[in-house]
Amino acid sequence: MGLIVQKFGGTSVGTPERIKNAARRVARTREAGHDVVVVVSAMAGETDRLIRLAREVAAQPDEREYDWVVSTGELVSSGLLALALLDKGVSARSIDASHIVRTDADHANARIRTVDTERVRAELARGAVLVVPGFQGMTESGDVTTLGRGAGDLSAVALAAALKADACEIYTDVTGVFTSDPNVVPRARKLARVSFDEMLEMSSLGARVLQTRSVKLAKRYGVRIHVRSSFSDEEGTWVVPESEVMERLVVSGVTYNRNEAKVTIFRVPDTPGVAAAIFSPISEAGILVDVIVQNVAHDGKTDMTFTVPRGDLARCLPIAQEVGRKLGAGGVVSDASVAKVSVVGLGMKDHAGVAAQMFRALSAEGINIQMINTSEIKISVVIAERYVELACRVLHDTFNLGAAAPGAEES
Fold it and tell me: Which pTM does this prediction carry?
């Protein structure tokens, strides 16, 4: 017996029948003797519909009213799931997240400041399942805010952390975290456990299983996450502290991100302050820069190449061109046909030669590496987008991810 936070994503509550299915899962957990808090997303496609409506009414919607509109999808889902639970004879109550989640005032991308657990614990004490809309909260001044796309995961982890829950179950349309995207790599297999750090890298590098901010929060507060399918009873993947990972592979996963574009500013002065002059105005425009490569200087000049999200390229180019003009650069070019492929694994910390092995495998397939970025447990390369699927399959085979390590735990 314990306290479980269960989160159901948009596909898991996408139809009335799926809402009833989610209610059956919650009921089973309650019948097993656990206290349950449920966090729900809007029904699949509903948030997109609300966003379209807001933008049809106003070309540039007021941020406060925009959040008020798009937050309603989760309110509907929470009420429907509470109704389904009550219909099954389970004591349940929906509650507006604004009553318990306090945020800053950064509309559409708010940060959680506090979670008030008093009312939650009161409802649990009387035996009720509490159903909370994810993705949202409220400022101290009483304005509704939203936490960013995919932030239902963040809401669930924040509640689990505040309540000191035994686990946070994330129900989705996949059965767990895989060594790569099974749609691209047919031999990809499900991992029984993955560390917070590995999951954080995978999420930030393109794996769409968990929202990155939710993994950061889970690591900070030690919230154990169980990623599993709403449509299967099989065990999923546990996201846990490094000490609990039994399957310590050199490489645990291969991820990719097609949402990349490359910008190069040629022949800028090789002097102190140039990098700040280039990247400060880009940052001020709210554009995230990812991989950066500076070439070796010749004749006091150097080339600066960096990647940005593909959707931000149109905004980034005029800024880069203006900066280049001020610096007397030789020109600016861009390429929106690139992608990033990465390998991630705890074993990289104490295993040499992973980069060389990765580069040889790509070279053997004629895949040119345009940029490289590394951390303690990941290596990322920027390549032509047309080679993404081939690169993922080749690297998956190179690091033998289709078969479990000897003695490793399997799900």
Answer: 0.89
Residue 220 lies in a domain: no
Q: Of 46, 39, 138, 116, whose CA–CA distance to 82 is shortest?
A: 39
**For residue 294, is it within any domain?**
yes
Which CATH number is 362's domain given?
Answer: 3.30.2130.10
Residue 12 sits in the same domain as residue 136: yes
Look at the chain and report how many structural domains it folds into.
2
Domain co-membership, 164 together with 277 = no
Structure tokens at 159: 């509640």
Kindly report, residue by residue over 78-98, the tens digit of the pLDDT.
999 999 999 999 999 999 988
Least confident of 257-261, 387-391, 399-403: 399-403
CA distance 357 to 254: 14
Its domain, for residue 94, covers 3-173
User: Is-contact 308 289, C-beta < 8 A?
Assistant: yes
| Of the candidates 406, 405, 265, 404, the residue with the CA atom closest to the CA atom of residue 331 | 265
Distance between CA atoms of 102 and 88, rounded to whole angstroms? 32
Question: What is the rounded distance in angstroms from the CA atom of residue 210 to the CA atom of residue 299?
Answer: 47
Question: pLDDT tens across 94-129, in order?
Answer: 999 888 999 999 999 999 999 999 989 999 999 999
Alpha-carbon span 342 to 190, nearest angstrom: 18
